[in-house]
Amino acid sequence: MRRRTQALALSTALLLTCGGTIGTAAGTAEAADKVKRTAECQGDWLPATPTGPDIMNGQVEFLDLPPVKVGKDVNWRTDPYRNRSWSMVFHSLRWMGRLVADYESNGDRAYLTRATEIAKDWVKDNPRRGGGSPYAWQEHPIALRAPALVCLSKHVSESWLTKSLAEHASMLANPALYEKGHNHGIDQDIALLGIGCRYGREQWSGLAIRRLTETVELDVDSQGALREQAPRYAIYVYDRLKVAMDNIKECGRKVPASIEKRWKSMEDFISHSTQPNGFMVPIGDGGADVRPVGYAAPKQTVKVFGNGYVYGRTAWNKPESAFYSIRFGPGMKYHGHEDHLGVTYYAQGRDVLVDVGFHSYENSAYRRWTMSPQAHNVPVVAGAGFRGGTRSSLTKSSIKDDRQSFQLTDRAYGVARTRSVLVNHGEDVMAVLDTVPRGSKVGTIWHFATDLSAASSDGGKVVVKDKSGWKAALVQVAMPSCKPVSSKVVRGATNPYQGWVSPAYLRKQAAPAVVSAATAGSVLTVVTPGTGTPSVSCSGGKVTVETSEGTVGFRVKGSSLS
């Protein structure tokens, strides 16, 4: 009862702040068929779909899923796809805000009337104390819905709306519901700031700015890397922080320096996370179809981010450049996957070794598989149980213009597994050495891009090709014996899942995966883009790889490559 009493008291204060008017606000500008455009109702928070005409026709479309008829009297328990993301967007009411923004542009009062009907119906059918949709008062829909209601309040001053905004503010200010150090927390702060600034409530706007400062310092490290373990969320956080900073200024407040500094530092992280083809590497909950736009290329071609990412390339702004990523760092959290020690490799204008990617947030067997080690290019200790959430460390690195090498280790299987990665440029070669202690055996999993198919598999060598005839080879030998390691190619298996890649949300395609036999000691994997006939030989700790572009040599010493 205490929370409800507080919300009612706050709503009364908001009504007094607004002059206590009841009914639709009207001004001389509107009488002249010109409606004032407001900062609260304009901006990139507005959805591209559904459009205003769609909504006026009683139809909504979210997440590229087929449109849904909701009619005039909306059923707020509508859940046509049994999809949590769809329901979250539905209850965010951003699509209602689309109508208000359009009204500001076209002056068509029917748009404002319909927006008011939708919002009022939502408030009536979704009381805070239950009886509505289970999604209605979850923390993220609250945060996304509040700005849409603030937008509506610029044109409508009715008691049900101010009371609802007061209740939203009460929920947003509740520390028990706050997602500190997470993109949801940023959205919560933007929402609370918006209500506080709209009605001159210093305790709300001040709290939002203080919390936002703490959240940004937790979520974005000093290098600009996002701790949420999915680089595509860095774009979301970057965009939302820009909204937050603009709103702070609109509110007449000063943006804390640490927020602006961390925001700016994210540009490098986003750029380094982007492959030469312009698409972001799909690490964690990040689709392979995410294309960052407008971020400048840094000077460095190789960058190690302490929060768990190594990115390297041969050059910027050249689609044919080589590119690789390596994962390490804190154990899985937020939007991360169990991908530690995993690599991806792009070369000669093509995806070669890929991450399986992001399918959806639905709790399905496929989703769980995409998050598991088996969906990433990692070493697996045979017969040992996997310990989820284990931290891994980058223990060595050597960075030269034409060659880089790195060594990583963890105990995710109860024993030390060590991976050394060497990438040679010019003659494109990636070499990976996986080592486990005496008494253990190590296997490996490698995922190729969907446009590649297996051309041959024999004697420790798998050759893949695309429709143009371009080829790449993956050769595996035991070390130090240099004897071939047998493997099998799996494509489109479902029991268990293996040999799939998700190129976009709610999509999956069969793709070749190479699963090697468990081997004692060390396994060396050599990937040669552009040729299906490499020759790999060993002599006295030196490995020589003959490719169509030339000869590449490197040394194997213990668990290290150089």
TrEMBL record:
PANTHER family: HEPARIN-SULFATE LYASE (PTHR39210:SF1)
Principal subcellular localization: periplasm
Keywords: Lyase, Periplasm, Signal
Start and end residues of each Heparinase II/III-like C-terminal domain: 332-513
Domain Heparin-sulfate lyase N-terminal: 66-307
Keyword DNA damage (UniProt): no
GO molecular function, one term: lyase activity
Protein name from the UniProt record: Heparin-sulfate lyase N-terminal domain-containing protein
Annotated signal sequence range: 1-31
Cell compartments where the protein resides: Periplasm
InterPro entries, alphabetized: Chondroitin_lyas, Hepar_II_III_C, Hepar_II_III_N
The keyword Signal is annotated on this UniProt entry: yes
SUPFAM superfamilies documented for this protein: Chondroitin AC/alginate lyase
